[in-house]
Amino acid sequence: MMGFTRFNSRQHRRKIIFLILFIAFIYFVSRRDSLYLLRPIWDKKPQPFNTYSFWPYVPAIESDKDYCRHYGWQQRQVGNRKSPRIIDATMISTEVSLFKLRLMETRDHVDMVIVVEADRSFDGTPKPHFPIFNETEIRPYMKDSQVLVYHNDAQYAHGHHSRSSTWHNHGDLILMSDVDEISSKETLQLAKVCSLPPILHLNMRDYLYSFEFPLNDNGYWRPKIVTFEATTTFGYNHIRASDELLLHAGWHCSWCFRSIQEYHIKMTGYSHNDRLTSSSQLLPSEIQRKICTGLDIYDMYPEAYTFTDLLRQLGPAPRATEYTHLPAYTTMLQNPEFRFLLPGFCERPLDMLVS
């Protein structure tokens, strides 16, 4: 009997050792995937926002005062003063076409555009020099009355600029978002008419590679409109700064590049370049395959906080079933420069295109 007990004990120890080794193997060999698959166990969903549903602005039917009441906000009392200026502040790396699209969508409401061309990647590596920003090329997509401020030093955007700065005044509305985060003209109209919370995050519909692949998630919240106060300093950031979130405020077109070269630049120089697990992920043919099928560029599982959401988001992104509400849609159809953002135009050239 004692021998049988010792045998069972040895078997039990072997099972424990095997289990420990198996867990260690999964952790070290597939640590990235394990963390994402098990996120609902070890991570908590961020604190929910106070959300505002988006209402259409129809001045012929209701007054501005009644329109603002839908949100629980007050109509702006401008008196003899003009409505607050909207200043669009963004950074650009290579996404010139997206920047033009952004300008076309917002030009009727934005008064000043501040664009910083990043001279380094997100991990601090000097960026290869390309002739990216050309004001002569950009100006046709803006109104004559708009002011354009350009800097080619990324440190400018991240620095905290004092209240004595020449380009922002007390009460100005700073639209703080990356170049691939495009606010709708309706959102900016709302900002002109109604008194917003001091910091209002904008929930944007997520797309991958183009407007052909809307992601099956809850949207993107990082863009925000900040009301500038004369007693504060200002610096570009991409963090959560309030609990207020306006729904259906625009579009976030992630990884929407015109060339394979741009994908390669971002994959190797981005702050998440540790997501690369194989050199084959950088092959042009592999990048092209994923652009046309809606698969994740890094072969990663979705970031989900419940197993229900995880299962819902697994696999390639679904193809869009309608294209009626997109930024500057007519221009995308008519101008070949923007067709890469539409269905049926997923093929990308190898090298960057300079329009």
UniProtKB/TrEMBL annotation:
Q: Single Gene Ontology BP term?
A: N-acetylglucosamine metabolic process
Q: Pfam families annotated for this entry?
A: Glyco_transf_17 (PF04724)
| Keywords, in A-Z order | Transferase
Q: In the UniProt record, does the keyword Plastid occur?
A: no
Enumerate the InterPro entries for this protein.
Glyco_trans_17
Keyword Ubl conjugation in the entry? The reply is no
Any GO MF annotation of the entry: beta-1,4-mannosylglycoprotein 4-beta-N-acetylglucosaminyltransferase activity
Name the PANTHER family for this protein: BETA-1,4-MANNOSYL-GLYCOPROTEIN 4-BETA-N-ACETYLGLUCOSAMINYLTRANSFERASE, BETA-1,4-MANNOSYL-GLYCOPROTEIN BETA-1,4-N-ACETYLGLUCOSAMINYL-TRANSFERASE
What name goes with this protein? Answer: Glycosyl transferase
**Native species of this protein?**
Multifurca ochricompacta
